[in-house]
TrEMBL record:
Domain 4Fe-4S ferredoxin-type per the UniProt entry, residue ranges: 38-69
Enzyme superclass (EC): oxidoreductase
Gene Ontology MF annotations: iron-sulfur cluster binding; metal ion binding; oxidoreductase activity, acting on the CH-NH2 group of donors, NAD or NADP as acceptor
PANTHER family: GLUTAMATE SYNTHASE [NADPH] SMALL CHAIN
One Pfam family this sequence matches: Fer4_20
Gene Ontology biological process terms in this record: glutamate biosynthetic process
Pathway: Amino-acid biosynthesis
Cross-referenced Gene3D superfamilies: Alpha-helical ferredoxin, FAD/NAD(P)-binding domain
Domain of life the protein comes from: Bacteria
The name this protein goes by in its record: Glutamate synthase small subunit
Keywords associated with the record: Amino-acid biosynthesis, Glutamate biosynthesis, Iron, Iron-sulfur, Metal-binding, Oxidoreductase
InterPro entries with a match to the protein in the record: 4Fe4S_Fe-S-bd (IPR017896), DPD_II (IPR028261), FAD/NAD-bd_sf (IPR036188), FAD/NAD-binding_dom (IPR023753), Glut_synth_ssu1 (IPR006005), Glutamate_Synthase (IPR051394), Helical_ferredxn (IPR009051)
Keyword rRNA-binding assigned: no
Species lineage: Bacteria, Bacillati, Actinomycetota, Actinomycetes, Mycobacteriales
Amino acid sequence: MADPRGFLNHTERELPDRRPVDLRLMDWKEVYTEFDKGHLKTQASRCMDCGIPFCHNGCPLGNLIPEWNDLVYKDRWRDGIERLHATNNFPEFTGRLCPAPCEASCVLGINQPAVTIKQVEVELIENAFDEGWVAPVMPTVKTGKNVAVIGSGPAGLAAAQQLTRAGHGVTVFERADRIGGLLRYGIPEFKMEKRFIDRRLEQMRIEGTEFRTNVNVGVDVTVDELREDFDAVVLAVGSTIGRDLPIPGRELDGIHQAMEFLPQANRVQHGDTVPGQIVATGKKVIIIGGGDTGADCLGTSLRQGAESVHQFEIMPRPPMERAGSTPWPTYPLMYRVSSAHEEGGDRVFSVNTEEFVGENGKVTALKAHEVTMVGGRFEKVEGSDFTLEADLVLLAMGFVGPEREDLLDKLGVGYGDRGVIARDGDFASTVPGVFVAGDAGRGQSLIVWAIAEGRAAAAGVDKFLEGHTVLPVPIYPTQVAQR
Ligand SMILES: Cc1cc2nc3c(=O)[nH]c(=O)nc-3n(C[C@H](O)[C@H](O)[C@H](O)COP(=O)(O)OP(=O)(O)OC[C@H]3O[C@@H](n4cnc5c(N)ncnc54)[C@H](O)[C@@H]3O)c2cc1C
Ligand code: SF4
């Protein structure tokens, strides 16, 4: 333990400042300013080395948090990044984008603000890149076996990096024109600049992972070709079918899924021209869905110059403090203000949309009413009907599962009860030699889970091909998969 009195001497939790709203709305760069290393060390010293670090369980990767807090405090940054990379292939993604369930289970968090674990994580990896310590890890053996990883989101990338390092020939297939999955085309630039994906891909290419973009597996490469050319397959195809809102007027122009809108904005940040781009510029925007995807639509709409933005959520507004139903060390239900919410727009809770209204085939408004929860069901609040003008409606209500037709059904994989691909404790699907990782098997989730599952699936593939594996397996995802 670095400083036995750290948590007593430094009771304040400090985080980097966000850039002023007026300024950050003028560009697409990340919203946070740099964080001073001295402050970071002070924050790391607040870690109590509490004996039973609940943060380990809170983190799906089992990140060795107290160890690297201690190493940062002692200025042993190189050892720190080694401990971090031992459990996490891509701390630059989680350090920016993870909702940090580890912090929700931090023991200090029982009666003080939790340790700033996620900030220490991102600073460790950024410092390591700056110092040139993130070198390719070349495989020491070649197994002669080939693995196809389908999908290049965080699950596919983690599986590919682990399998390449274990000596297998790994090809990542991606149907989009660039690698990264939702990291690339879902998450906006202001949450994570895409150069951080490219920097990591450079390392993976040198290590030997091959990437093939613009290949829709199941269409451009048939299932027979896939099985013939590869000894094993990892399905990391995500959960890409957006939940729809089949109410009257849904067919009107101007109503789009969030994942029709966000990828186009991301493409423009890459310098692409998007003919007929869906933009919020000068429009009255209504986002249906109060979660992170909705918040990303909000920040994007504001940067594009929307006239107004409302974000609707059917659930009631959560409490300001941790709800009694989610006690420590669980992830708390509570009201959160993301950087996008700070930038503008109106959040409307307990609201249900019942009809889209239009003129000449284009949406002009929606009709909605307030709801209350009675016995776990939503009930309309009589007399609460209202109409709100809209010329762009974005549906951000989550995802219902992976697409089946072109690839999954042809492969013959089985499905679980929530429409996801069924898998066992080794992340194997019902088809021998075909494994699954990330949202495709778990359902819509988080980057940290996708990386954890990619690592676990890689160990499952290695065991399948070699009869044993030395690849580490995050324990928690395996337990969850077995359930
Ligand atoms: C807008 C948005 C914002 C989010 N923000 C956050 C956040 O801030 N923090 C967080 O932790 N999580 C966030 N998430 C969730 C997170 O992005 C996902 O949980 C994670 O990306 C899942 O990773 P994955 O690798 O399983 O799938 P994905 O990232 O979805 O990648 C799947 C890839 O497979 C490809 N693919 C599918 N079928 C084929 C095929 N037949 N052939 C070739 N390629 C194929 C797809 O094109 C895609 O690139 C967000 C999600 C969305 C939609
Ligand atoms: S990956 Fe997420 S849960 Fe794990 S240590 Fe980092 S911020 Fe915490």
